[in-house]
Amino acid sequence: MFIILGIAISIVFITIGAGFTLYFSDKAYQYNKVITALKASTAIYAAFILVFLLILIPDIVSAWAVEADGAGLGFLAAGLSTGLATIGAGYAVGSVGSSALGAVSENPKILGKTLIFVGLAEGIAIYGLIISIIILGRL
């Protein structure tokens, strides 16, 4: 397991190093080499994750078979409700926040109204958290 983690971390550092090399170089010939290295690094990393998942799938299936009372699906539902609500809230805050910033730059008097809209967008994440607490309370 530590070997897999070490290889994954080294691939990430190689990718970061290639990115810094591309950022700080002004020569066109190095650009093609760095792009090729980034593509190869991404392909190796994707293959590495696929192999890692194929190693883990039998353990996941056997753990699911042990959980006959459905608690595992309850934990999955709680995680999904929080995660998806947070992703939705992030998207909503990004959209509403950028629009609010543009509106406030046009008319500074509407700052209070735009803060209400941003707060409503943040409420989506709280709803997902409440649902996951309810689910976890029933397990």
What number of domains?
2
- CATH superfamily grouping of the largest domain: F1F0 ATP synthase subunit C
Q: What is the helix fraction of residues, given as a range? A: over 70%
Strand composition percent: under 5%
Shape: flat
What count of helical segments does DSSP give?
4
Briefly, what is this?
This protein is an all-alpha fold.
Report on this structure:
- The protein is 91% helix and 0% strand.
- It is mainly alpha-helical.
- The chain is flat.
Which structural traits does this protein have?
139 residues; mainly alpha; F1FO ATP Synthase; 2 domains; 4 helices; 91% helix; flat
Topology:
Elements: H1 2-24, H2 28-66, H3 71-106, H4 111-138
Helix pairs in contact: 1-2, 3-4
